[in-house]
Write a structure and sequence with these properties.
Elements lengths: L1 H20 L10 E9 L1 H6 E8 L5 E6 L3 E8 L4 E11 L9 E14 L4 E15 L3 H6 L4 E7 L5 E3 L7
Antiparallel strand pairs: 1-4, 1-6, 2-3, 2-5, 5-8, 6-7, 8-9
Length: about 170
């Protein structure tokens, strides 16, 4: 009987120990949130149409036409590695009359990404800053930059790497 009582006490102790080891609280899901801020010179917007394709929620591609000198989007992802980025396209406006002798063409991007687990990353990118481009070179100059992209990937652990080859199909 003593052996049975001893075994029962040991068994109860093991059950209590095993039950108290696990956490009753569910783990918080990691979410990365990125903000894209882009600026464009008015000369650029006067000379061409600007289209941005950006990585939206969970890597979905979204294209938007830009009509002001400031463009911003905030997107989130809970799929890792999370991909964030933008591709920019410039096409000459069919009705654009390039009447000025010189154009100042600028396009800048600022990435910011945060995770709910503490990662914070900011990266400014000058896509181009071209001052005094002659009117006859505006189209050929913008063609060099059209269809390019800038982006990055972030892991669940907050490790960030450059990713300029993201798919925007």
């Amino acid at each position: 009987m003593k052996k049975f009582l001893f075994m029962a006490i040991l068994l109860m102790g093991a059950v209590v120990t095993f039950n108290s080891c696990g956490s009753d609280e569910p783990k918080e899901k990691t979410i990365a949130t990125a903000t894209y801020n882009m600026t464009f010179s008015q000369d650029l917007l006067d000379a061409c149409n600007v289209f941005i394709t950006y990585k939206a929620e969970n890597g979905r591609n979204v294209m938007e036409a830009v009509s002001s000198t400031w463009w911003t989007k905030t997107v989130s992802s809970d799929k890792f590695p999370a991909e964030f980025g933008v591709m920019y396209k410039f096409s000459t406006k069919s009705d654009a009359e390039l009447v000025k002798e010189k154009y100042d063409l600028t396009c800048n991007l600022n990435f910011n990404v945060k995770t709910n687990t503490g990662t914070n990353y900011t990266h400014p990118v000058t896509i181009f800053d071209l001052q005094g481009v002659s009117r006859d070179k505006v189209v050929s100059t913008l063609d060099k930059y059209s269809g390019k992209s800038t982006g990055f990937k972030i892991t669940k652990d907050g490790i960030i790497s450059s990713a300029n080859n993201l798919k925007y199909d």
